[in-house]
Amino acid sequence: MKILVAVKRVIDYNVKPRVKTDGSGVDLANVKMAMNPFDEIAVEEAVRLKEAGAATEVVVVSAGTSQSQDVLRTALAMGADRAILVETAADLQPLAVAGLMAAIVEREAPQLVLLGKQAIDNDAGQTGQKLAGLLGWPQATFAFKTEFADGVLTVTREIDGGLERVALDLPAVVTTDLRLNSPRYVTLLNIMKAKKKPLDTLTPDALGVDVTPRLTVLEVTEPPPRKSGIMVSDVEALIEKLRNEAKVI
């Protein structure tokens, strides 16, 4: 079984994003970047499936500028076998990324595609679902646990009411949730080995995919400052404020 994993380069989750002064977007100048945490979980799960003998090859894919090579090298250091970069300076939106991934799927013919459930930069959470729709494949989102046996992938999903188990015939698309696993620490030795692993570069034109943005960002602003709380003398005063001021009871 070949597994294809999508990874995205985003602002490191420890860094507080800054909005550009003109409100046109988020300022990325001199900001530490890293692999999207949910995608890192997807890479870890793919490598674990390979280590368990369920997969024979793990291929990681990213779309963006040439700087996205660093997250691909990180994925290779985690245990992926090879990488593909779709190099473009375009502002990629979920449908465009899904289209690029669908084209890569046609070239690579994987049996399983893993993606993070969302990227922490825009929190859209749409790419995996759109990819499954374009491919006409079954999908399981918000994966909490995966089990592979007899050609069937069983996925335990996190849902509002608790957990749900679904069985998927391959090929399929799965998006990973936060509690699926804990990604491994990347050692210096594996980082050095990753430099020798193959990394191919393609373009959207070579894949025949139009990545022109279909949505226009009108303005990006900082969230309003949170109002400070107030102290009440007793429970009766709290109930009164909830009833008369907040109007929640």
UniProtKB/TrEMBL annotation:
<comment type="function">
    <text>The electron transfer flavoprotein serves as a specific electron acceptor for other dehydrogenases. It transfers the electrons to the main respiratory chain via ETF-ubiquinone oxidoreductase (ETF dehydrogenase).</text>
</comment>
<dbReference type="GO" id="GO:0009055">
    <property type="term" value="F:electron transfer activity"/>
</dbReference>
<comment type="similarity">
    <text>Belongs to the ETF beta-subunit/FixA family.</text>
</comment>
<keyword id="KW-0249">Electron transport</keyword>
<keyword id="KW-0813">Transport</keyword>
<dbReference type="InterPro" id="IPR014729">
    <property type="entry name" value="Rossmann-like_a/b/a_fold"/>
</dbReference>
<dbReference type="InterPro" id="IPR033948">
    <property type="entry name" value="ETF_beta_N"/>
</dbReference>
<dbReference type="Pfam" id="PF01012">
    <property type="entry name" value="ETF"/>
</dbReference>
<dbReference type="InterPro" id="IPR000049">
    <property type="entry name" value="ET-Flavoprotein_bsu_CS"/>
</dbReference>
<dbReference type="InterPro" id="IPR014730">
    <property type="entry name" value="ETF_a/b_N"/>
</dbReference>
<dbReference type="GO" id="GO:0046395">
    <property type="term" value="P:carboxylic acid catabolic process"/>
</dbReference>
<protein>
    <recommendedName>
        <fullName>Electron transfer flavoprotein subunit beta</fullName>
    </recommendedName>
</protein>
<comment type="subunit">
    <text>Heterodimer of an alpha and a beta subunit.</text>
</comment>
<feature type="domain" description="Electron transfer flavoprotein alpha/beta-subunit N-terminal">
    <location>
        <begin position="23"/>
        <end position="211"/>
    </location>
</feature>
<dbReference type="InterPro" id="IPR012255">
    <property type="entry name" value="ETF_b"/>
</dbReference>
